[in-house]
Write a structure and sequence with these properties.
alpha/beta, Jelly Rolls, 11-stranded mixed β-sheet, 11 helices
Length: 467
């Protein structure tokens, strides 16, 4: 069997899973259905398939360090992590991956998978992949159709033809039409996963959407390697049309094939889908975190930071985070994105980030804030360091509560131990490092007329950040 490169697309934002999923920490980076994140599960389920290599990932530039860290936690060394300056849908993302692999093995297969799916039966999934590989080796563009279990209106459908050929791609149907599809047995849900030879994909993109291939090729050629990442040229990629694999190629090609997949699949497109994908107790409830329930049925309750108690409710979703609580009826879980849209219109920030914000060096969390002051808790990973930086509008006080800090302040450098502190005057170059073997925890008190995160002038940064 040919070599198979897993190509993991990690560009989504998952707005319908707010408040857990946010722009700067989307659903594929969350542990929603198991101890691993959805991204990690996507990579791990390929283990054991003959001929499979290390993964290649395509992700948003904003998420690059989070994605790299999660891959590292699996003990994997990715072939490449390609950074998109802006999201252009799945066809350009797959094309960027193919252009990278073309330089290595153009005859190899690439398995394109979204990073945010749940598959409960890994063995059945791997069997379908091996069947699809045999078709892909014959020059077919293979998609995987999910054997439907209900007349779903939220998915596109695939009508099956003879000899694994795709007869037709169908848009999301009405409920009545979906029922007829289910009864006929000729239709599968469109999973959004694809398997094909690298060279075959590039040939079909050139035939069907030469504008996409041209823009991606220029973006690749004018891009550059940045530490562990490959950063495509932002201007050239910005000129690339946005389109899905289905619309750009699969609906136009004469080489589309489909392999049925019955493996407990879900795209976790809404909270109700997560409830269905998780193991339920005798009352039909899925409870995560510190939850007490009484007379509660068919509910999904997630508590992250405090006790959540439910009494006398049914078919309800309750999601608690440090800065937001969502309460919704399961039948309206798709409408959560309307709340996200309202947050954007109101120029709030709860749709963008959690109270705890992750950085390549660790994380920070807001503790308190008021007029002209802000308090944060910083956690710096062992061996990590913040950039050498300066602020125009704020001064900072640092208090070490755990670990050891190496501080650069102006022309001096010194060590701080637990219960020791220092002051960074406004306009002074400074850097914080953790030279120890345990996480460094700092309480930072900021004071000044403007305390926004954009008040940072970087002089040196080991992570190659410019803003």
């Amino acid at each position: 069997m040919s070599v198979i490169y897993p190509v993991v697309l990690s560009g989504g934002s998952g707005t319908r899973l707010w408040p857990l999923s946010r722009e700067h920490y989307p659903k594929q980076l969350l542990c929603l259905a198991g101890k691993q994140t959805l991204l990690q599960q996507t990579i791990a389920r390929m283990q054991g398939v003959p001929g499979v290599t290390e993964p290649l990932l395509v992700c948003n530039e904003e998420h690059r360090f989070l994605v790299a860290e999660q891959v590292r936690e699996l003990g994997r060394a990715p072939v490449e992590i390609i950074l998109e300056s802006t999201g252009k849908n799945t066809a350009p993302a797959a094309t960027l991956a193919a252009l990278s692999l073309e330089q290595r093995e153009p005859d190899a297969l690439m398995l394109v998978m979204p990073a945010d799916h749940v598959i409960q039966n890994v063995a059945a999934f791997q069997q379908a992949i091996q069947k699809g590989a045999r078709l892909a080796e014959q020059g077919m563009l293979v998609t995987f159709g999910i054997v439907p279990t209900a007349p779903e209106t939220g998915y596109g459908y695939i009508r099956c033809g003879k000899d694994n050929r795709v007869a037709e791609f169908v848009e999301k149907p009405s409920l009545a039409t979906a029922g007829k599809y289910l009864e006929s047995g000729d239709y599968l849900w469109n999973s959004g996963m694809f398997l094909m030879q690298v060279k075959t994909w590039l040939q079909e993109v050139e035939r069907c959407r030469p504008d996409i291939l041209s823009a991606c090729r220029k973006a690749r050629e004018q891009g550059k390697r940045d530490a562990d990442f490959y950063r495509v040229d932002a201007q050239q990629f910005g000129n690339c049309p946005s389109d899905s694999i289905d619309y750009a190629v699969m609906e136009k090609t004469d080489h589309a094939a489909v392999v049925p997949l019955d493996a407990g699949w879900s795209d976790i497109g809404a909270w109700s889908a997560l409830w269905q994908a998780c193991e339920q107790d005798a009352a039909g409830n899925v409870m995560q975190g510190d939850v007490l329930s009484h007379s509660t049925r068919n509910a999904l309750v997630i508590a992250q930071h405090r006790l959540v108690a439910t009494v006398g409710i049914e078919d309800v979703i309750v999601i608690e985070t440090a800065d937001a609580v969502l309460v919704a009826h399961k039948d309206h879980s798709q409408s959560v994105r309307d709340i996200v849209d309202q947050l954007k219109r109101d120029k709030r920030t709860e749709h963008k980030m959690h109270r705890r914000v992750y950085r390549p060096w660790g994380s920070y969390e807001g503790v308190d804030a008021g007029e002209r002051f802000q308090v944060k808790r910083l956690v710096v990973k062992p061996g990590a360091q913040l950039s050498l930086q300066m602020h125009h509008h704020r001064a900072e006080h640092w208090i070490v509560v755990k670990g050891t800090a190496r501080v650069t302040r102006g022309e001096e450098a010194f060590i701080l131990s637990e219960n020791e502190s220092t002051y960074i005057p406004l306009g002074t170059k400074h850097r914080l490092e953790n030279p120890g073997t345990i996480p460094l925890e700092i309480i930072e008190v900021q004071s000044g007329g403007y305390l926004g995160e954009d008040d940072i002038v970087r002089f040196e940064d080991i992570y190659n950040r410019h803003c």
